[in-house]
Amino acid sequence: MCNTLRNLKDILWILVEDSTEPSWVVSNILNDCGVPFVHLNIPTPQSEKPKAREPFWFRPKGILQRNLGLQWLRQNLILGRNKGVLYIADDDNSYNLRIFEEMRGTNKVSTWPVGFAGELPWEGCVTSKNRTQIVRMWSVYKPERPFPIDMAGFAVNIDLILQHKNAGFDYKRLRGMQESQFLLGLGLKNWRELEPLADGCRKILVWHTRTAEPLLTLWHELESQGVISPPIDDWP
């Protein structure tokens, strides 16, 4: 993340470490990075940590950590005085720097496709021919969700975070509903209210990248049925 964020201007990196106290390793990385930062920490409860043989996606991650970051914003920023956009980044994602510049213009909540998400080669918004309005969401896992998108696929104007102080994340939510419940808590109703970025949702500027084969089970099932994904510039 440091090597990505150090290329950007006017950014504050809020890093929330999953630990009982800040570690010297993370502190050293932040101090050496050169990016303005806030270093917070809170441990994941033992009951919510992954168990042996559970798949990596089985339990929600970063629930308390994200909530602590939201709490810091609400305690330190003032509505109407501080301006900005919140993006929840992750160290298992790869980014085209362009997406950070595009999201700066977010009015409420912006969105874009994410590569290797939802067991598909890409998941996210599909726009009209003029690329200005979202007409549907390309998602196979629980597509009926109010916001069938990945955590890496949206940014929120800080005003919404400060206006809706109870919006956050919860271990008790059904799998796949963290994003939807968070955005509902910010006053949105469904994906039709999202603002399309990345050339009208035709570019993939964020990828889930892990040192493993991407999980594409649902996509392989669709391919066997002759299903073709919506067109996107960055996919053959």
UniProtKB/TrEMBL annotation:
Membrane topology note: Single-pass type II membrane protein
Cofactor: Mn(2+)
One GO biological process term: chondroitin sulfate proteoglycan biosynthetic process
Catalysed reactions, as listed in the record: 3-O-(beta-D-galactosyl-(1->3)-beta-D-galactosyl-(1->4)-beta-D-xylosyl)-L-seryl-[protein] + UDP-alpha-D-glucuronate = 3-O-(beta-D-GlcA-(1->3)-beta-D-Gal-(1->3)-beta-D-Gal-(1->4)-beta-D-Xyl)-L-seryl-[protein] + UDP + H(+)
EC number: 2.4.1.135
Protein name: Galactosylgalactosylxylosylprotein 3-beta-glucuronosyltransferase
Source organism per UniProt: Schistosoma mansoni
GO molecular function, one term: galactosylgalactosylxylosylprotein 3-beta-glucuronosyltransferase activity
Site positions for Interaction with galactose moiety of substrate glycoprotein: E123
Source domain of life: Eukaryota
Pathway assigned to this chain's UniProt record: Protein modification; protein glycosylation
Binding site for Mn(2+): D92
